[in-house]
Fold:
Amino acid sequence: MTEQNQTQLPQDKPLEIAGRVYQSGLLVGTGKYRDLAETAEAIEASGAEIVTVAVRRTNIGQNTDEPNLLDVISPDRYTILPNTAGCMNAKDAVRTCKLARELLDGHDLVKLEILGEDKTLYPNMPETLVAAEELVKDGFQVMVYCSDDPLLARRLEEIGCIAIMPLGAPIGSGLGIQNRYSIRQIIENANVPVLVDAGVGTASDATIAMELGCDGVLMNTAIAQARDPIRMARAMKLAIEAGRHAHLAGRMPRRAYASASSPIDGTFF
Structure:
């Protein structure tokens, strides 16, 4: 490979969130599994280092008489990413983040997620902007679930969010990456990590997200609702790695017509 071609290829860099470097670009959730044992086994198989937890739906210490997720997903091993799933407005989201900070001894890394309605679970962007601004001012490090609008993504970065997380398709739909152009635009304009959040259904979807240039992918349902969650978790680990390598390698040009793998010029017959 020529020096010119080498300089045109993107340089690899590990995922860095809130000053900490992660080897895996796969982030996983903890919902929809059969039990905590399956949750722990799937997360182990995925190789993920960041695990997101819905504070309003999962016990991480607020209910002392119920099983605690942190008993099987140790904060000593994983970065716990509290999220505001289930919140429909800024006020509830901010309150949820503050509760998580109390429960996790001052932990300030959060995933902000505010939904607009129950059918599509699309992000409520006006409320998301309000909450993001308040949380950043209060010292939180905010990873934010958002629409695929490049202008809104830029505004969230300007507010101070440390990672932009556009949906690839509606949460839990498994439709795959439906908005590749918009996500590419967000990636090209961002100075913070961009991670696809929502829409992944199978390993090829995760690979596509990484081939687009995403720094990572967050998923839950695609693993938890697979017929074999543990095997799917392993598949997603490999898919993330494959997509990243493909992005860095640089795909061949698309052509309208065939191009022989073994050229016939100079053959003897």
